[in-house]
Design brief:
- By secondary structure, this protein is an alpha+beta fold.
- The chain is built from 8 helices and 15 strands.
- Strands 1, 2, 3, 4, 6, 11, 13, 14 and 15 form a 9-stranded antiparallel beta sheet that branches. A 4-stranded antiparallel beta sheet has the order 5-12-7-10. Strands 8-9 form a two-stranded antiparallel ribbon.
- Helix 2 packs across helix 3.
- It is globular, with a radius of gyration of 18 Å.
Length: 263
C-alpha cells in the first residue's frame, strides 16, 4: 500500500484492473437504472451526446452499499484518511458522436480548495476511440489553476505537458486526484460509453455547497455507511474562513440553528 501512496503522490492517479466482476458491474448498472427512475439531478453540463445524472446514491440503498464496500474503503483510507464521506456522484453517458469534454480540474468546477478523490468505474469498454478518459500525470501538483468558460465547459488556462489515454474494460477502476487535469474526447464509435464516478472527501474537509444529510462511507478506516446531519469539516471555523465566512457570520448561523433547529 505504501507503494500505491507513493505512486499516487507522484502521478496523481492509480489504476485497478478487474476490481469489479461482471456480476458486480451488472448489479451496479441495475441499481443505477432504478435510481434514475427517481427524481435524480440532470447535469447542467449536458451537451450534444454527453449526459450526466448525479446524486444517484441518494435514491438507492444498493448503490450506497456498493460505494461504501470494504475494498473501496481500503483503497481510499491511505490517501483520504480514515473518515470519509461522499460529496457527489454521477453517471456519465457519452453517446455515439458525443462531444469532447475539454481539459479541466474538478476543483475548477466545484470551487473547492481541498483535494478530494475521484473514483471512476468503467461500466462499458472505454478507449480513445469511444471518448474514453485522458489524464495528465503529475498535473495535480500544480494545485488549482485558472479556468475559463468555453461554451458549455470550463477549460484550464495552461499548457498540458503530458497526457495519457486510459483504456479500460468493464469493471476496471481509476482513482485520481480532483486536482488532476483530465478530459474525454469525442465518441467516434457506434456504441455508448458509460462510466460511474464517485467523489470521496475526508470528513476534515468542507464543501459549503453540499447540504445535509451527508452520506458517510467510513469511520476509523472501517466501512460504516449512513446519513448524518453534520461532520467535523462542517464544524471547523478554519474551513469556513477559507470560503470567506467570518467568525461572526458562523457564530450567528450556529445561534440560529440552536433557536430554530429546523430552519
Amino acid at each position: 500500500m505504501n507503494d500505491l501512496c507513493t505512486q499516487f503522490k507522484e502521478k496523481g492517479y492509480l489504476e485497478f484492473r478487474g476490481l469489479f466482476s461482471r456480476a458486480e458491474v451488472d448489479e451496479l448498472l441495475d441499481a443505477i437504472k432504478n435510481a434514475k427512475q427517481c427524481e435524480t439531478g440532470r447535469g447542467r453540463l449536458d451537451d450534444k451526446g454527453l449526459v450526466f445524472n448525479h446524486n444517484l446514491y441518494f435514491y438507492n440503498s444498493r448503490i450506497q452499499a456498493i460505494v461504501s464496500q470494504k475494498k473501496i474503503v481500503d483503497l481510499l483510507t491511505p490517501l483520504a484518511g480514515p473518515d470519509i464521506w461522499i460529496r457527489w456522484d454521477q453517471l456519465v453517458t457519452k453517446l455515439p458522436g458525443g462531444v469532447e469534454f475539454p481539459w479541466h480540474q474538478d476543483n475548477g468546477y466545484n470551487g473547492l480548495k481541498d483535494e478530494h478523490f475521484q473514483f471512476w468505474i468503467a461500466l462499458s469498454e472505454s478507449n480513445p476511440e469511444n471518448g474514453g478518459l485522458w489524464l495528465s500525470p503529475g498535473s495535480h501538483k500544480n494545485g488549482v489553476v485558472p479556468h475559463k468558460w468555453v461554451g458549455q465547459h470550463k477549460v484550464v488556462e495552461c499548457n498540458i505537458e503530458q497526457e495519457v489515454p486510459i483504456s479500460a474494460t468493464r469493471g476496471d477502476a481509476v482513482l485520481f486526484s480532483s486536482m488532476m487535469m483530465h478530459r474525454t474526447k469525442t465518441n467516434k464509435s457506434d456504441v455508448p460509453r458509460l462510466a460511474y464516478v464517485i467523489e470521496y472527501m475526508s470528513t476534515k474537509d468542507y464543501d459549503p455547497k453540499i447540504k445535509a444529510p451527508f452520506f458517510m462511507v467510513a469511520k476509523n478506516g472501517v466501512s460504516m455507511p449512513g446519513f448524518v446531519d453534520t461532520y467535523p469539516g462542517m464544524e471547523s471555523f478554519f474551513n469556513h474562513f477559507k470560503y470567506g465566512q467570518t467568525l461572526i457570520q458562523r457564530a450567528a448561523h450556529k445561534i440560529k440553528q440552536i433557536i430554530h433547529p429546523t430552519a
